[in-house]
Known about the structure:
Number of helices of chain C: 15
Order of helices and strands of chain C: HEEEHEHHHHHHHHHHHHH
Strand content of chain C: 5-15%
Largest sheet of chain A: 11 strands, mixed
Mean pLDDT of chain C: 89
Shape of chain C: globular
Largest interface: B-C, 107 and 103 residues
Oligomer: heterotrimer
Radius of gyration of chain C: 26 Å
CATH topology of the domain at 117-287 and 322-333 in chain C: MetI-like fold
Mean pLDDT of chain A: 90
Shape of chain A: globular
Radius of gyration of chain A: 22 Å
CATH architecture of the domain at 117-287 and 322-333 in chain C: Orthogonal Bundle
Distance between the termini of chain C: 15 Å
Low-confidence stretches of chain A: 1-22
CATH superfamily of the domain at 117-287 and 322-333 in chain C: MetI-like
Largest sheet of chain C: 2 strands, antiparallel
Strand order of the largest sheet of chain C: 1-4
Number of strands of chain A: 11
Amino acid sequence: MFHKTKSALFLVALLATGTANAQTNCGATTGRVNIVGNEFPAIRSVAAQAARCQTGSLTVRSNLTANHQRINLAGMQGNPAEYTSAIVATSSIVELINNNVLRPLDALVAAHGADIPRNQLITIDGRIMAVAFMANSQHLVYRKDILAQVGAEPPKTYEEMIRIGRTLRERGILRNPIGGAYQAGWNLAQEFVNMYIGHGGEFFRPGTPEVAINNAQGIAALNTMKALSELMNPDFLTHDSNATSAEWRAGNVAMMNMWGSRTGVLMQREGNQPQVADNTTVGAPMTVGGGRIPATTLWWDGWTVARNVSDEDARATFLALKHGTSHALLNAETMGQAVWMIAGYQPAPVNKGVMDTMAMGAKPYPMLPYMGLLHTALGDGIAPFLQGRKDAATTLADIEAAYRTAARERGFLR
Amino acid sequence: MTISARRRPATLNLLIGICLIAWLLLAIFPFVWTLWGSFKVEGDFFSKAGWQNALSGPLTQLEYGASFTGAGYHGAWVKEEFWRAVLNSLVVVVCVVVVSLTFGTLGGYALSRSTYRYAFWLLIVALVFRAMPPITLVSGYLLPFYRLNLWGHLPTAIIVLVAINQPFTLWMLTAFFKNIPKDLDESARVDGCTQFQAFRHVIIPVMWPGVITTGLFSFLLAYNDFVVTAMLLSKQNQTMIPKIASFLGTTQTEGNVMFAVASVVSVTAPLFLLVMFFQRQIVSGLTAGAVKG
Amino acid sequence: MRHAVFLRFFLPTALAMLTFIALPIVSVLVQSVYAPHERVVVEVENCTPFGCTKSTVIDQEATRKLQEERPLGRFVGGDIYADRSHLAFGEIGQAWRGAETWADFGRRVMTLPFYKALAFTLTYMLFVTPLSIMLGFCVALAVNALPRMLRGPTIFFSLLPMIVTPLVGALILFWMVDSRGIIGSAVQWLAGDDDLSLKASTPLTWIMLIVYGTWSTAPFAFVVYYAGLQTVPQDTLESAMLDGATRWHRIRYIVLPHLLPLTTFMFLIKIMDNFRVFEPIVSFNAGAHAQSLSYFIYSDLAGETRLLSSAAATSVLTVAGVLVLLSPVLVRTWRQFGKA
Lengths: 414, 293, 340
């Protein structure tokens, strides 16, 4: 820990001198840049790198907070907007697009972004709306020592995972061998989204906001989740990713579906029992129900530019963030912070899971204007089924009803 | 009460003692446990393997070669510069208490001295205001505050906290002022003082106890507020509680929970001195007021 | 006091409350009867680093004109209040027609989110309000019997549940009640059941939340009562003692009546606060077992796509609920006001 602290301090010192003395030439000299985004190390690094573009007439500020989703819209609706850029993810860009506060980047990319790899550009209806810089996904994490005890290969499907889990319980090796972030709310809904996609389901009738999850795939997805939950700690409905990680660290769990961004710290010796740290292994995401597409979703994080700012500020923002997510960002400290989509990035073994997810052709999280409403309805509605208080069809019907109420309010449905 | 204390039978004393110790254990235990645990690593303090680990600290032992470590404190105060948040909090808390009490004493005094019915209705309206969930109010502020360039500054958060706290302050202080005999300021009026002069020269000297008690609750509100400060303050102006929240991590990233624990422990100690200092006033304050609600 | 003078004294607080509470309340009321315009959805192709997919977006051009004509949105009157997420009149009617027995009707109504949340909110309020006030009173009596030297530290320690920020306090308590935590293990040992988990069962979660609510709000009642006890007229107590009144009689007939106004004040505040219960549910990750009205507001506002009108309607319903609950106390205060 002290070692880490020292290197972090060193980095801060380095960044400080960087901003003070050696001004980076980002191509922009005047304007105002103000970035709003989530707070975690990878995004902090991006903001710090963008801040190096600061000159006497170009200000670069940032407001990174876990609350970013609740303030970014209001902060971009004024004219001029307080924030010239929001760092968003697959799901959170939707509300900004719904409210038309993002500036299409085509002109700026044509003028200043010829060197940005095409696959980093997020295009919606043919217009570039964001530039992605990192990827994330959920995938298998397992304890190789425990699986070896029962002679099992790492599971490739959820059915195998359940089978191995039952064996581990029957042999008395672990009481609750499977872990998962099943906390009622956002996390639980996310697991349903994974499982439903894995079963080949479509959330809506194509091209419409008409929800369609009360079907065979939906029921199969719920049943798989229930079978998994029976092998989890009985408190699973209160376990977010933090609690799931804590279970893992205590050595109570042998297999789980976990965010790639959270596996690194589980494999470090620092803060973990050596037995757990040394045997934690990252695997590819699993499929379910004989499907070929893995039961998981791909996520990107990217930056945007606000619509309601002057062209000068937009240009400055574009150039500062382009620099913030350029090759210059990568060094020994930042390399391991994320799965960067930046030239020169070298994945570590811990990133294998996310790389595999991409290689297996997993679907991205649906970027639909009304997906957030369904996600909320799912998060509130699934728990009674897992508690055994409702059957699968009623659960799905109730979730659909809750979604329809919300979608009617937001004007998606009549 | 001193007389009755002397005559209290031994069995009753014993019973009171046992009950009080039981309550104190309940009240203190989580904090003492936190104090102890703040010197461990997260894996021990929040051990999912067994609670005994929080006492013995095997992982702390493994990582630092000792059963205790100051890493949480070092991380919070040095690496994450928690002191900045403490300074901001200090500004917010002091201003909220001072402004709240200034507005509240003036308004409460007026309410207590008015004999018109509208004074009652104003109190009821204040109550309705207090019934509104703060989270709804705060969400409504965002857009206008951004448009008017008020968002992110300490004074904005301060005035919002003052306003949200006014109904409670008004109710409490009105009750208090009602217990200060009207004759006091009325005789001052007879001597030729204006109402304000009467307030200043006659009421202010005797109101402190009640004001300090109300101040304690304003203090706790501003000190522990999360909803307002987390949504309305920019990064530079962040106060303690949002800062502590930022140590806790998000769904997709791991936090530094021990930083949060160490921060909480280190800001509780000064409060002990504060309560010791003001406890006489708290007591005598309510002695004089608030009793005839 | 003359009106003009009154106004001068009352102006600062009135301005603060009007700007930051009354105005937002008006906007909340307006918000609750308007909903966003109907959105035209068009099918498009989106490309991300993970390939291109068919998707949909809102047709901004089609929406803009509507938005400019009527910036508040479309007027929906009481529709939001009546929809399934709120009072659910339609669903209640269906349940009424479809139900065979009262129990069946109750079961059907309890699947509706608003009523399910109301059930928990009311239960929580009905238990926590009297329990925390009674506990606070007992502690105040006990502390009052202590020698002066010990009172200062005791007051501070008794205040601790209120001082430690719920953000971290609840995190620690959440661990403590875990089946491997210190309280969870103690409960398992007491019940003699190794599989018992406080977080896995709905009734136990409710009890846990109620106990936590009582624990964390008792200090408020304690401080107020302790101070109130200092004002009990000593001469009345002494003369009662001379008349041979027992200790219990003195509490029952002198102390309690003396503290009655304080008790009213606290019931008022506590009923209001407990009806808006929110923090314990979030802190204990108990959303699967218990929801409250404030929890709905939070979930409407915190989702990726915000439901402002729904949150506004729930807020108005919360205020209405508080007023209904407080009306007996308010009528009492009204009568007293005339006497004061």
